[in-house]
Amino acid sequence: MARKINPLKLLRQHLLITVLLAFFIIGVLVVAINSHSRQKAVIIPSSGSAVVQPSQVGSSAPVSNGTSSTDTSPKTATSSSSSASTSGAPSAPSGTFVSTHQPKSSDTEESFCNTSAGATCYIQFTNGGTIKKLEPKVAGTDGSVYWVWQVNNAGLSAGSWQITAVSSLNGQAKSTTDHNLLEVAP
User: How many domains does one find in the chain?
Assistant: First the structure.
């Protein structure tokens, strides 16, 4: 004897399967989008002291200018101490974020960040979804931080990298983007 199929019951089963499949697909897409959008930074190995002594910063040291993309004239670094504003926010970072903007992969770079005394500073390099950072260091009483690092040890592939210095103090952060890209040659 053949069993009768209830068309309403069959429709409910198909609808339930369709809804469950839609939730599954949406869940997979949400996970994929979230994991793709989370950029993980890799810390670049470096040497150098966290504090730059006034004798280490010459009056002719160029400073990356984060205020104008058309201003490429050299700036001078000073050894005067930086201080936090009355709001407790750090000074916007300035300095020579990289010693050369067109290194070969075998080159050594020197990076300087000037900010408020006691602020934590790091320099970040971004290429697409890849982020590499110099190790965060605390600025000394003169507000300076210094790194020496190898381009090939940093994991910076050949290409253009955006340079951003970030300083934080008392839960507040400020950043400055170098208008010149780091152009790593093979």
Answer: 2
Strand pairing partners for 126? 131, 162
Residue 28: domain span: 1-38
Q: Are residues 89 and 46 in the same domain?
A: yes
Question: Could you tell me which residues are beta bridge partners of residue 166?
Answer: 122, 175
Distances 3 to 120, 131, 166, 170 between C-alpha atoms, Å: 75, 63, 72, 74
> Residue 42: what pLDDT?
76
95 and 22 inside one domain: no
Q: How many CB atoms neighbour CB 128 within 10 A?
A: 11
**pLDDT above 90 covers what percent of the chain?**
46
Mean per-residue pLDDT over the chain, rounded? 77
- Global pTM? 0.61
Residue 93: name the closest of 177, 181, 3, 186 by CA.
177
